[in-house]
TrEMBL record:
<comment type="similarity">
    <text>Belongs to the 'phage' integrase family.</text>
</comment>
<dbReference type="InterPro" id="IPR050090">
    <property type="entry name" value="Tyrosine_recombinase_XerCD"/>
</dbReference>
<feature type="domain" description="Core-binding (CB)">
    <location>
        <begin position="286"/>
        <end position="395"/>
    </location>
</feature>
<dbReference type="Pfam" id="PF12482">
    <property type="entry name" value="DUF3701"/>
</dbReference>
<protein>
    <submittedName>
        <fullName>Phage integrase family protein</fullName>
    </submittedName>
</protein>
<keyword id="KW-0229">DNA integration</keyword>
<dbReference type="InterPro" id="IPR002104">
    <property type="entry name" value="Integrase_catalytic"/>
</dbReference>
<dbReference type="InterPro" id="IPR022169">
    <property type="entry name" value="DUF3701"/>
</dbReference>
<keyword id="KW-0238">DNA-binding</keyword>
<dbReference type="InterPro" id="IPR010998">
    <property type="entry name" value="Integrase_recombinase_N"/>
</dbReference>
<feature type="region of interest" description="Disordered">
    <location>
        <begin position="116"/>
        <end position="135"/>
    </location>
</feature>
<dbReference type="InterPro" id="IPR013762">
    <property type="entry name" value="Integrase-like_cat_sf"/>
</dbReference>
<dbReference type="InterPro" id="IPR044068">
    <property type="entry name" value="CB"/>
</dbReference>
<dbReference type="InterPro" id="IPR011010">
    <property type="entry name" value="DNA_brk_join_enz"/>
</dbReference>
<keyword id="KW-0233">DNA recombination</keyword>
<dbReference type="Pfam" id="PF00589">
    <property type="entry name" value="Phage_integrase"/>
</dbReference>
<feature type="domain" description="Tyr recombinase">
    <location>
        <begin position="419"/>
        <end position="637"/>
    </location>
</feature>
């Protein structure tokens, strides 16, 4: 039975050829191993040696295929002993008589019984078969010895980037690589360097152990420059040091992030068509790239240690426009006209494939692309709003004289950002809560990781619905941010309440009421894992509110915003299988942000089973900048 862990083919050297010649010429397996290949392992266990013999035959066959000799590849895999096995050996007449208890019978009677038991032994057929089998075996051995001599004189000393992976790697793994389009060693190395540590996730049938064996084989050929793996492929994406990240992709005039994009001098905007005189400019920027950086800094810039979602959104839109202006329009950003602005809107609706890539790629990754695909009308409207604000800033600072996006008509947006079709009704939420209470995880017993995180995801659903927090705010919340709230401060509340101190958009801090049952559930989770004695325990201060224990003895950890959003989406998809057709469709479309909308509609509802609150209080708790935004949650009609 072949090993489930794929292994690369052995690298041939002179000792392998000498070892196999000795076996073909009849030498003992252990003696031949100790004489020629003892350096490959001290063990002389016959099972180990025979396993090595099979690997060496595979390596000989791979070398023959690499030299376009398929017949030789089949020949060297043959076992000569199979041809002599057909020639049966028969016992002597004396041994037969002793075995059957015929010692006291006459020789003629013994011969008659022997002929009846072994008819081939007396007709000469056995001898002919034995002679034919031995002759065929000798012929195969002679042909194999000739093949070994030819291979030894023609074998490739080093793998080459153009070699087929089937010529060097385990056949089962090589077949799986072929199915993914990774046919040559050069293709494989390029794919690993492009994707990184988890390159094997895109190759069905290859897991972490098989991938480690393949990479170990490639590490043995670092002296071949074209097969050299980059350092970042050995680290999880989140642990790649900044210095190493910056070295993975060199700055260039290509589809690269803003910090790596190099604008040609002729298109950098120093001579932009709509540039204002430099003497009147309120910015230190002398070219377009620097002007964009000044605008991002004016918007708050990236705070020390983290980048806000707002900053990423502004940078993304400015980045896309600069790349399009230089690479597609061949114009400086400060030379764009109203016609160019309309062309850019059309581009966002139908970008070329080379501009699109998978979501959530790291900015330092070679796989990063500025777009995922065509933007929806709402996304295009947002993009126009942001770049219009960029040019308005540049005009105010006397860097430019005109805003090309000033009169661009925005694509129609879906009516009502808080429309009721993006929220859960009271009945749907009640059904969802019942499913969570019935069996919170809803995870296959074989999926240990998902089963361990399911309680934290279920708690996240309840917290988002009960507080109306943004998912980024809840992911950043810590137990130390929780404090008691008097019942009088919460209209209609009879039990003691808690409040969570949150730093929201624009670093504005607000206090959001939290139902006591959610805090009690959190305390039970902490006490079950003995993380601390209670919420007020000082040791709990730094523990995330959405604490997750991957194992019973593991340290508590929190969630990232993107990880939590994906986990919630996956849980809603699983729970939707247990709903009727109507609710199933709703839950499959639902996301974490729907729960914020559901909270807003519920907080302003006048239905008896809902806890309605004043508009100003809801605005304060949700963190909206204006009452008009919060008023969008008021029931219509």
């Amino acid at each position: 039975m072949s090993s489930p862990i794929a292994r690369p083919a052995r690298q041939l050297h002179r000792g392998h050829f000498a070892f196999m010649r000795a076996l073909l010429q009849g030498l003992d397996e252990k003696e031949s191993w100790n004489r020629y290949l003892q350096s490959e392992g001290a063990s002389t266990d016959l099972r180990t040696i025979r396993h090595a013999i099979a690997e060496i035959r595979d390596a000989f066959a791979a070398a023959a295929r690499r030299e376009a000799r398929p017949g030789m590849a089949r020949l060297v895999r043959l076992d000569p002993e199979r041809f002599s096995a057909a020639a049966k050996s028969f016992p002597t007449l004396e041994a037969f008589a002793a075995e059957r208890g015929l010692e006291d019978f006459s020789e003629a009677e013994q011969a008659e019984a022997y002929a009846e038991a072994y008819p081939d032994a007396t007709t000469g057929g056995s001898e002919r078969a034995r002679r034919g089998g031995l002759t065929q075996r000798s012929r195969v051995i002679a042909q194999q010895l000739d093949a070994l001599r030819w291979l030894e004189s023609h074998m490739a000393p080093e793998p080459r980037p153009g070699d087929d992976v089937k010529a060097w790697l385990n056949p089962a793994v090589a077949t799986r690589l072929h199915r993914c389009g990774l046919r040559t060693l050069g293709d494989l190395v390029a794919h690993i360097n492009l994707v990184g540590a988890r390159w094997w996730c895109q190759v069905p049938g290859v897991g972490v152990h098989k991938a480690a064996r393949v990479m170990a084989w490639l590490d043995g050929h670092v002296h071949v420059p074209a097969l050299r793996l980059q350092a970042h492929v050995r680290m999880p994406p989140g642990q790649v040091p900044p210095a190493l990240r910056n070295s993975i992709v060199a700055p260039a005039t290509a589809l690269l992030p803003l910090e790596k994009f190099r604008v040609p001098e002729a298109l950098d905007g120093r001579q932009g068509k709509y540039r204002a005189p430099q003497a009147r400019c309120g910015l230190r920027a002398t070219h377009d790239h620097a002007a964009i950086s000044a605008w991002l800094e004016a918007k708050g810039g990236p705070p020390a240690g983290k980048v806000s979602a707002t900053f990423r959104a502004y940078r993304k839109e400015a980045e896309r426009l600069l790349l399009w202006s230089v690479l597609v329009r061949a114009k400086a950003l400060s030379s764009l006209s109203a016609d160019d602005a309309r062309a850019y809107c059309a581009f966002l609706a139908d970008p070329p494939p080379e501009w699109c890539g998978p979501r959530h790629q790291q900015r330092w990754s070679p796989r990063w692309r500025p777009l995922e695909g065509p933007l929806s009308p709402a996304a295009r409207s947002h993009a126009v709003t942001v770049v219009k604000a960029l040019f308005a800033f540049l005009v105010r600072q006397n860097y430019m004289t005109a805003n090309p996006f000033a009169d661009v008509a925005q694509p129609p947006r879906r009516k009502g950002a808080f429309s009721a079709d993006r929220t859960l009704t009271v009945a749907q939420w009640d059904r969802l809560e019942a499913l969570l209470a019935e069996r919170e995880d809803r995870v296959d017993d074989t999926d240990r990781a998902a089963r361990a995180t399911a309680p934290a995801v279920a708690r996240a659903l309840r917290w988002l619905h009960a507080t109306g927090l943004r998912i980024s705010e809840l992911a950043a919340a810590r137990c130390g941010d929780l404090g008691p709230l008097a019942p009088a401060e919460v209209p209609g509340a009879s039990a003691p309440q808690w409040q969570l101190s949150i730093e929201g958009k624009g670093t504005r801090r607000r206090h959001v009421p939290v139902p006591a049952e959610l805090v009690a559930e959190l305390e039970r989770e902490l006490s079950r894992h003995r993380a601390c004695e209670g919420i007020r325990d000082p040791a709990c201060g730094a523990i995330p509110v959405l604490v997750c224990f991957a194992r019973a003895d593991a340290a508590p950890r929190g969630w990232s915003s993107s990880g939590l959003a994906k986990a919630i989406k996956a849980l809603l998809m699983r729970l939707s299988k247990h709903c009727d057709a109507t609710d199933r469709v709703v839950l499959r479309k639902a996301s974490a942000h729907w729960l914020r909308h559901s909270h807003g509609f519920g907080a302003l509802s006048e239905r008896p089973n809902q806890l309605s609150r004043p508009l100003e209080a809801v605005r304060r708790h949700l963190g909206h900048a204006s009452l008009a935004t919060t008023a969008g949650y008021r029931p219509r009609g």
